[in-house]
Specification:
two-stranded antiparallel ribbon, 22 helices, Cytochrome Bc1 Complex, Chain D, domain 2, 2 domains, mainly alpha, binds heme C
Length: 453
């Protein structure tokens, strides 16, 4: 009898639950279609030889001039491929993740290290989009990067370009070419891997120094030979870009989130709260999908959402003017690339400078951008983040005015709506396989024998 009663209760309850669903699913379906959202396809199989080489290079400090920092020092698998703190700490820093400490000679990066999921689907790289590969006209594609020798119709670093082109040949996806080129720049950045000792060297010389340093390690010669037999022993930094990009493309994908499952038709993949959150995300009320749209939840455009600036800042005055520092256009002031959002919760703190520590803080900011800018409590930031905050807050009006009018207005989200949005961002968009796959790199050994961060 008791069993029957429990069954009856369960039945009545689930009926009630289901009763509310068809409407929300139907609504959501229309909104998702309008925002051009589709599930992400799994990445194609890796080219094994590139992957193996790229994996080793990603974790190996031999890729930095002073052999004291690797990609994983700032893009740590344990912290959602970011640093677990607002900024990254470059060469000479000690430890990894949020416990990583700067030494006397170490620099903090000027921005928050972005996560690296689903990167080969992205047409531009860096917070300000400094690296891209795009159509000049319908039949010609050119690179744009911080290195003039790789850019335009007639790049003069021809061998590097040739090696990078291999990438787009083996990968039908054009975005892969910009990803392979992108890898060259953290290597050559003094705040990241170049270190002060070689700061004066040109990219060209420094890149070749790195290639030689890597090839001097037993174990790498064979890996290079296997990956690039056609290079006949003449390797350059482009080959490194291709191998690391292939590793990132394959290893760091997030395509099995509950949201992807839902998009593939499994209506039970999201809870009712997550569905309400999704509905809001794609609604006129919260407006998120006006920028976070399409399959990656990004328009890959550059927008200002009025994020308060703390920390070192890119500009001489300690602020960060985003895209405009690179385009020199006042129209681009305070604009940053709309980030992709799968697995976003794993890589906090959030935004280009990591000022928001929780997803709720992000949503509360959007709920009233003007209030958030004016009442930002900088006292809660770490010492590094507090740097320049007082100076930068003098530009609060400019920051506010850089946000497009319609996104400046308060959204009037209720506490419950904020909760639903946070659930959508934190649960629906997180791939449950990621944790397991990222953990598999723990304890990895690299050919140089250098310690791993
Ligand atoms: C000292 C910390 C640090 C190290 C080491 C580092 N990065 Fe980064 N990475 C950053 C920061 C900070 C940014 C954002 C810079 C910006 O946008 O101005 C970034 C950006 C990127 C991006 C751009 C993502 C996007 O599309 O916006 C990629 C890809 C990347 N790094 C890969 C790598 C690889 C591969 C390595 C090793 C070769 C590496 N990084 C080493 C801190 C680091
Ligand atoms: C006007 C375009 C625009 C709108 C509208 C918008 N975003 Fe964003 N979003 C961005 C940009 C640009 C950034 C990066 C800003 C920065 O770092 O200064 C960002 C950053 C984020 C981040 C942090 C990602 C990371 O990796 O640190 C999250 C989460 C986010 N947005 C969620 C939302 C939600 C939720 C909404 C709706 C309430 C929303 N966004 C509305 C453009 C937009």
């Amino acid at each position: 009898m008791k069993a029957f009663f429990t069954y009856f209760l369960f039945f009545a309850f689930s009926r009630q639950l289901v009763a509310g669903l068809p409407d929300i699913d139907a609504d959501l379906k229309i909104k998702l279609k309008k925002a051009n959202v589709t599930a992400l396809p799994k990445p194609g199989a890796a080219k094994k030889e590139y992957f193996e080489l790229g994996k080793n290079l990603f974790f190996d400090k031999v890729l930095s001039g002073e052999r004291n920092v690797s990609c994983s020092s700032c893009h740590s698998p344990e912290h959602g491929l970011s640093s677990g703190m607002a900024y990254g700490i470059g060469g000479g820093g000690i430890g990894s993740g949020p416990l990583r400490k700067a030494s006397a000679f170490t620099q903090y990066t000027l921005r928050n290290p972005p996560q690296l999921f689903n990167l080969s689907g992205q047409p531009t790289h860096f917070w300000d989009g400094q690296v891209s590969y795009y159509d000049l006209d319908s039949d010609q594609k050119i690179l744009t990067t911080p290195e003039p020798g790789l850019n335009g119709e007639y790049p003069y670093l021809t061998e590097v370009i040739e090696a990078l082109r291999l990438a787009s040949k083996t990968n039908s996806n054009d975005n892969f070419m910009s990803l392979a080129a992108q890898i060259l720049f953290p290597i050559a950045n003094t705040y990241e891997m170049k270190g002060s000792k070689y700061a004066q060297e040109t990219n060209e010389d420094y890149w070749q120094r790195i290639v030689n340093q890597v090839l001097a390690v037993d174990g790498y010669k064979a890996l290079f030979k296997r990956a690039f037999p056609q290079a006949k022993g003449q390797y350059n930094i482009g080959h490194i870009g291709v191998a690391v990009a292939e590793f990132i493309r394959q290893a760091f994908s997030a395509t099995e989130t509950p949201f992807d499952k839902y998009l593939q038709g499994r209506v039970t993949a999201l809870s009712i709260e997550e569905k309400r959150g999704a509905l809001l995300f794609y609604s006129e009320k919260a407006k998120c999908s006006q920028c976070h749209t399409g399959p990656h939840l990004s328009d890959f455009d550059f927008k200002s959402v009025g994020v308060p600036q703390g920390g070192p800042g890119v500009s001489a005055d300690g602020d960060d003017y985003g895209r405009s520092d690179y385009t020199n256009s006042t129209l681009d002031v305070f604009k940053f690339k709309t980030p992709v959002l799968r697995n976003v919760v794993l890589s906090g703190p959030f935004m280009h400078n990591g000022v928001f520590k929780t997803m709720k803080e992000v949503v509360v900011h959007y709920n009233d951008v003007g209030y958030s800018i004016d009442h930002f409590d900088f006292e809660k930031l770490s010492q590094v983040e507090q740097k320049n905050y007082k100076e930068n807050s003098k530009r609060n009006n400019a920051r506010y005015n850089s946000v497009e009018f319609e996104f400046r207005m308060p959204l009037h989200l209720t506490e419950a709506e904020i909760g639903d949005l946070v659930k959508f961002l934190e649960i629906s968009l997180t791939d449950p396989n990621t944790e397991k796959s990222l953990k598999s790199y723990k304890g990895i050994k690299v050919p140089s024998g250098l310690p791993i961060d």
